[in-house]
């Protein structure tokens, strides 16, 4: 199973970006999917997550600006980021809990990360 992110870029403050993360490989089902970020010198933090049933949660710092969504038919999760701020600059990682068999449990997978840089 692989997670491949795309959409990171350099953008001015106030701008928008849309990140995508597609899962591929032997996939029976995907439970929760989420986006994390890690800025230089800081710990990785949860940005947003969405359950298999569509429930979402967000970090307080991004509420009202970011929207997470998923397309189950495409095994893809998105992060729409609006009103970007310089403090949103970080490497953004996709995470997913994926079951590869009917009877097996879900394993945790990470993407390689995509850089988001917001200039002031």
Q: Kindly estimate the percentage of residues that lie in beta strands according to DSSP.
A: over 45%
Unreliable spans are none
Number of helices: 0
Give the overall silhouette. elongated
Mean pLDDT: 96
Helix and strand run: EEEEEEEEEEE
Distance between the termini: 37 Å
Explain this structure.
The protein is an all-beta fold and 120 residues long. It contains no helices and 11 strands. The strands form 2 sheets. Strands 2, 4, 5, 6, 9, 10 and 11 form a 7-stranded mixed beta sheet that branches. A 4-stranded antiparallel beta sheet has the order 1-3-8-7, with no helix packed on it. The N and C termini lie far apart (37 Å). The model has no long low-confidence stretch (mean pLDDT 96).
Summarize the helices and strands and which ones pair or pack.
Blueprint: E1 2-6, E2 10-12, E3 17-24, E4 29-38, E5 45-50, E6 56-58, E7 66-71, E8 76-81, E9 90-99, E10 107-110, E11 114-119
Parallel strand pairs: 2-11
Antiparallel strand pairs: 1-3, 3-8, 4-5, 4-9, 5-6, 7-8, 9-10, 9-11
